[in-house]
Amino acid sequence: MALRSTQTGFGPVTKGFHWLMAILFATMFAIGWYMDLLPLGLEKLAWISRHKSIGVTILFLAVLRIIWRLAEQTPAGLGEKAWERQAAKLAHFALYAVMLAMPLSGWLMSSAANFSVSVFGLFTLPDLVGPDKVLYEQLRFTHWILSWVIVGLVGLHVAAAFKHHFINRDATLRRMLPGTGKGN
After folding, report:
1. Residue 76: Cβ within 10 Å count
2. In a domain, 7, yes or no
3. What are residue 152's phi and psi, to 5 degrees?
4. Does residue 183 form part of some domain?
5. Least buried of 85, 108, 117, 161, by fewest C-beta within 10 Å?
């Protein structure tokens, strides 16, 4: 089985990155929402620790995904207009940017709050900045804004996929589904 994408479809590595990141984004949003509802205590701290560990995992996978994407070809479009191709490129660029910016803002926020980032208890990341209450508050706001930027971008991405599937009736969505072939 070929691992790489072709002119007609996405390979299993690209699909794997796509769906793993989708699951991790949804998980992180749910954890973030839940932990914000908890009162300060051991349970909240445990969820914050999980959130940080998964965030570092997302950062690592995002870097790998971007490297893979730069080495890959993208399947040919399926008759999109020029403006649609440009909009898709811009949206994908924005998604890649937030895949990096979101976990980095969390890491910076933790550093500014003087809380180290432990990754699943296996190792601890170095602090990126020294303790700074003002910077912490700015990064906390940035992290919150980025979470909603991700929700908006993912919503746009899903809407575009459904538009291709239900209105254009093309294979754009089917080409990214796990277990499907690479053809149109």
Report:
1. 11
2. no
3. -65, -45
4. no
5. 85
